[in-house]
Design brief:
By secondary structure, this protein is mostly helical. 66% of the residues lie in helices and 0% in strands.
């Protein structure tokens, strides 16, 4: 039996169930004072990136089952690349929390309750599967730029809500403090560059461990 694929399958099923359960729970309860309803949770990249990672896990699960049943030999490239994109997104969430937000907010606000999974356990689960378990296909260098798409889209929406609409007109508050001091033009390129660094480094490790 392919033990790596079996382990990846178990983790992916856990990721899908945990993310779905937590996302649904936001409609009934949240320890985040910025979330007044379940729909509000989608304004956070944390929620969006974890959902993206969970969807990528859901996509790859049937192929892993087929491998375990000897119905196919390897994972399709598109599923591996999609999973890689989701992993990069949640790892950006992980590093943003640890480097940017943890010094500004209380640890119990960021790392306890559902936040423990969304900020820590979920990203690590995605990292482990992509780097060490789902290593059937190498990721091309050009595909690292695909991992920038989620953060670029979110960044555009975030700046529109914070700068163009503004909190006083029903937009978002600058809860990620990316426009602190009016320096959004520095924060956005830095976040995109950091995402690219995550994408490049994880691609190198993944490809090194590919069969």
């Amino acid at each position: 039996m392919n033990k790596k694929i079996l382990t990846a399958l178990i983790i992916n099923i856990f990721v899908v169930l945990a993310t779905a359960g937590i996302s649904i729970s936001y409609y009934f309860y949240s320890n985040n004072p910025l979330v007044e309803s379940g729909f509000d949770s989608y304004k956070f990249f944390t929620t969006d990136s974890n959902i993206l990672a969970a969807i990528s896990s859901l996509v790859i699960i049937p192929y892993e089952i087929q491998i375990l049943r000897n119905k196919r030999e390897k994972l399709p490239r598109f599923a591996v690349v999609f999973k890689y994109i989701g992993m990069v997104s949640v790892m950006l969430t992980f590093f943003t929390v640890m480097v940017v937000l943890l010094p500004k907010y209380k640890a119990e606000f960021l790392l306890l309750g559902t936040s423990f999974y969304m900020h820590l356990l979920g990203p690590i689960a995605a990292l482990v599967t992509v780097l060490f378990l789902e290593t059937d296909s190498k990721i091309k260098f050009g595909e690292t730029f695909l991992a920038l798409i989620p953060v670029a889209i979110y960044g555009a929406v975030y700046l529109t809500e914070v700068l163009i609409i503004g909190e006083e007109n029903g937009g978002w508050s600058d809860f990620y403090t990316f426009n602190s001091g009016g320096h959004w033009y520095i924060s956005l390129p830095v976040m995109i560059l950091f995402t690219l660094i995550i994408a490049v480094v994880t691609r190198l490790v993944h490809n090194k461990l590919t069969k």
